[in-house]
Amino acid sequence: MAADAATAPRDPGFATRRTVVNRGESMKYVYIALIVVFTAIVLLFKVQNFNTATISLFNMSLTLPMWLLAAGIYVLGMFTGAALVSLLKGWYAGATRRD
Fold first, then answer.
1. CA distance 23 to 65
2. Which helix (H) or strand (E) holds 72?
3. Which pLDDT tens digit goes with each residue over 85-96?
4. Among 19, 49, 72, 93, which lies 20 to 30 A Cα-Cα from 87?
């Protein structure tokens, strides 16, 4: 009896934490599957959009494949969106500051 008490876990949350670790292991495969599906969709988009598009501004023009144009616009949108959110947060903090 004493040997059983000595080897038994004393932490009541032991079983709960063990379950969470097992759930995390199974979620790893879900995340891997999501990455594979996302990558496949991006590659399919790239393969299907080899047509070119011409962008003109004033007297300049640039011809790019559609997939490269879409990827560039997406990245540009991420940067400008983050900058806009940061700018609005700063304006809001300045407007609500008490002197």
1. 43
2. helix 66-96
3. 999 999 988 888
4. 72
Helix (H, G, I), strand (E, B) or coil at 9: coil
The phi, psi pair for 57, rounded to 5°, reads -145, 115
Q: Give me the mean pLDDT over the 37-64 stretch.
A: 89
Model confidence pLDDT, tens digit, residues 64-78: 988 888 889 989 999
**Count, residues in the chain:** 99
Q: How far apart are the first and last CA of the chain?
A: 69
Rounded CA gap, 38 and 66, in Å?
19
Q: How many CB atoms are closer than 10 A to CB 71?
A: 16
Give the three-class secondary structure for 27.
helix
Distance CA(10)–CA(15), nearest Å, equals 11
Which residue shows structure tokens 């979620």? 27
